[in-house]
Amino acid sequence: MTEAAFFYGTLMATEIIGDVLCGRAAPPAIKTKKLASLQLTPALLKGHRRYAVKHATYPGLLESSNPSDQVEGILCEGLTIRDVEALDDYEGNEYRRQYTTVVKIHGSTHQNDNHIQENVIPCQVYLWIADKRQLQDHDWDYDHWRQHHLPTTIV
């Protein structure tokens, strides 16, 4: 049996997934093989908001009272129990893993596009449980992080 998780922050980068699941020092071929065993698909987590964390380069995620709030991210399917343990270690004590569902997106997400297919998939997600005052009142920017912080991110 395999597990699934929704990634909404630094783990959307395959470089980070490979480092976390295989170890930073693992040979590239091992990381490539691991990544090939996973199914990574764009997905939406509804009823949640992602926030930038003050003085950090990663986000926090909270449930929202507004059901129209949603977070774009990656659904990662095919994880082993060992992988989930590695993810728990990576996320640390600022987060709690919990079960949820996401909408797996195939095709365009434009509102006027009639070719959208959505599948609701059960998975796990890491919610922010540290002090909420550490969260900034704006969304975390993946593209900015990837351009400015990924090269120096150490697992």
Automatic annotation (TrEMBL):
Keywords (A to Z) from UniProt: Transferase
Source taxon at top rank: Eukaryota
Residues annotated as domain Gamma-glutamylcyclotransferase AIG2-like: 6-141
Listed InterPro entries: AIG2-like, AIG2-like_dom, GGCT-like, GGCT-like_sf
Pfam family, one: GGACT
A molecular function (GO) term: transferase activity
Family: Belongs to the gamma-glutamylcyclotransferase family.
Protein name: Putative gamma-glutamylcyclotransferase
Species the sequence originates in: Absidia glauca (Pin mould)
Gene name in the database record: ABSGL_10975.1 scaffold 12038
